[in-house]
Design a protein that fits this description.
Number of strands: 2
Family: Belongs to the FPP/GGPP synthase family.
Order of helices and strands: HHHHEEHHHHHHHHHHHH
CATH superfamily: Farnesyl Diphosphate Synthase
InterPro entries: Isoprenoid_synthase_dom_sf, Polyprenyl_synt, Polyprenyl_synt_CS
Protein name: Polyprenyl synthetase family protein
Largest sheet: 2 strands, antiparallel
Keywords: Magnesium, Metal-binding, Transferase
Cofactor: Mg(2+)
Length: 362
Amino acid sequence: MAESTPLVDLVRSRIDEFLTAREPILAAIGSDLVPLSEFSRQFLSGGKRFRAQFCYWGARSIAEQEGDALAATVSCATALEVFHAAALVHDDIIDNSDTRRGGASAHRLFEGIHEASGWAGNGPEYGRAAGILLGDLLLGWSDELLDEGLDRLADRASARRTRTLFNAMRTEVTAGQYLDILEERAWLVQPESELFGRALRVITFKSAKYSVQAPLVIGAALSGADSEQLEALRRFGLPLGIAYQLRDDVLGVFGDSEVTGKPSGDDIREGKRTVLVALARQGLDQAERTQLDAGLGDPGLSDAQIAALQQLIRRSGAVDQVEGMISDYVAEALSAITDAPLLADARTELRDLAVTVTRRTA
């Protein structure tokens, strides 16, 4: 599916309208808040809008989208994009990431303002604190957009169900984020036999549910989906979401920085204990595992050291295993909607989207 579609254009327009309406509120407080407006626009200007697309096609799989129904779906799809931006701002702080989408991450931008202005105190500390607040602001704004969409629904039961699903998504992704930082530190005392399962649990809750499954069922709930339709979309969304994140894990280690907007091998420097890493450790001997473990989480690794660790992971056979898992999960997802009680043209679009999100290079 092309990155620029009528839906993507509608979401882009809604983001612009929403931010334009919020800027006077910040400006009335003082000109010092201009960076909050500017950085919000910057972090909401790009991206692939996959969550918005899954939300729309979840809704569209149940009913045609026009009038108030379309407006409600666009508002909720936009809420998901703003929520995603908030999660990225916070994630970059947690991971000490310097870049996002080819530019500086939010906390580094705030740090730069501090240093350029000659203010008192520590620049990195100011950057992290300001970045946390920007993420919190975006979280609040995502809720406003969701409420705006729900207010357009005449069916209040559907509105309540949608709100419940959105709330559950927020809880799950926060829990998944905690599990992620836990695994980066607790892996050392966990049995080797459990590392793969624990890594799979992280991607299920940190990414798979909130990137694919939740947007699908949120959109479907907006359109009044019944329990059978919601279950079909859940069975499609979860394995596809896992495949989506497995692709992300491969790109985090081997992706081209010119395409991904992040340094090559960034997940190695950040010490991500992914499924890819768990499988690599299984395929390496003790000396090689020690070498891999020593490099993971070292932000000072040179390009040559990153290349050596990349080669080690390839040699373990883990990349081929992950590619096989991606194929299997995609097949499972597609099977779930083959005879599902969903509109036929939406099933076609969902199948196309499944290919797009799992074969991407960024």
